[in-house]
Amino acid sequence: MSSKRIVGYNSWMFRRKAIHDPAVASELVRDIKAAQPDHVMVTGDLVNLALPREFINGESWLRNLGKPDWISFVPGNHDAYVPVQWDKGMGCLGNYMTGDLMVPGAVTTADIAMPFPYVRQRRNIALIGVSTAVPTRPGRAAGVLGEAQIDALAATLKNLRSKGFYRILMIHHPPLPGMARRRKALTDAMGLKEILEDQGCDLVVHGHNHITMRNTLASRHGPVHILGMPAATSNGARSTEPAAWNEYHVRRTSGRWQCTVNTRCWDTEKCSFVPQTSYSLD
Ligand SMILES: [Fe+2]
After folding, report:
1. Crossing angle, helix 189-199 and helix 147-162, to 10 degrees?
2. Is 68 helix (H, G, I), strand (E, B) or coil?
3. Structural domain of 190
4. Would you state the pLDDT for residue 282?
5. How many domains does the chain fold into?
């Protein structure tokens, strides 16, 4: 076993295991299915140590949630915890990361054989997935987009804006500088910030910090709403934030996009997901 996996295993046994509860994830699936959304976005990490068995279990969890064309997934740092052969690792999840169309400049890497960014169009909403998942040395959980992916994303945002789509960017790491501790941060966040300011984006969803985050970035094309969620498996133990998920209602009224966000969170006493808050992103 690699030294990083040993460190990660110890972290799991002595700290994380008490927090991340499969029963919460199962109830999350039930709650999402009951809501019958048009689409589901999952922003990684699906696995912990990137062991082949974890990817099989992760794919099974996604399959139980729904069909690949109904779920869009982007990988996180734990999904690339150490280098893993594609077909024994993230390749299991490939059907959840396929785009509907060719994205000019989309790139594959040594770790991810799928082209990123990918785009899925669902009516007048465009879901754009990017990968920040790269193996790092022990003790680090940083993410990287890379110059090629950033360039392709800029062109994609511009293209989709010109066609009138509501653009949602899915990314695992918090997208802006200062949103995560340095050892856990997106290393090229400044580059991403610049293209978001330049091209705009209606909504950015992310994970990674295991807490609810709500930020807004001013762009040349209006506010970029940036929302992060706690871990989907968190039972709230040890003062952690319990699991939650957001339901987004996107509609176009009088020539303007409107998005209402309904948050449902894990209730530690009821052991189920309950309404937490509701707000508008206008
Ligand atoms: Fe992460």
Report:
1. 20
2. helix
3. 22-241
4. 76
5. 1
Determine the distance separating the centroid of ligand 1 and the alpha carbon of 269, expressed in angstroms.
27
Asked if residue 104 is part of any domain, the answer here is yes
pLDDT per position as a tens digit, 147-196: 999 999 999 999 999 999 999 999 999 999 999 999 999 999 999 999 99
> Residue 210 and residue 244: Cα distance in Å, rounded?
10
The CATH number covering residue 130 comes to 3.60.21.10
pLDDT at 1 over 60: no
Residue 214 counted as domain residue: yes
Q: pTM (2 decimals)?
A: 0.94
* Separation of CA 210 and ligand 1 centre (Å): 8
Mean pLDDT of the chain: 93
Reading phi first (left if > 0) and then psi (alpha if -120 to 50, else beta), residue 28 is in alpha
Question: What helix, strand, coil percent values describe the chain, rounded to 5?
Answer: 35, 25, 40
Give backbone dihedrals phi and psi of 161, rounded to 5 degrees, phi first.
Answer: -65, -45
In a domain, 272, yes or no: no
Compute the Cα dihedral for 204, 79, 98, 58 and give only its sign. Answer: negative
The Cα–Cα gap between 172 and 130 comes to 8
What tens digit of pLDDT does each residue of 11-22 get? 656 667 666 799
Q: Per residue in 212-261, pLDDT tens?
A: 999 999 999 999 999 999 999 998 887 889 999 999 999 999 989 999 99
Q: Spell 135-165 as b/e; 16+ CB within 10 A means b.
A: bbeeeebbbbbbeebbbbbbbbbebbbeeeb
Burial of 53 (0-12, 13-18, 19+ CB in 10 A): exposed
Instruction: State the pLDDT at residue 210.
Output: 93
Instruction: Name residues with Cβ closer than 5 Å to ligand 1, which is an ion.
Output: 45, 76-77, 208
Q: Is residue 222 part of a domain?
A: yes
CA of 253 to the centre of ligand 1 (A): 36
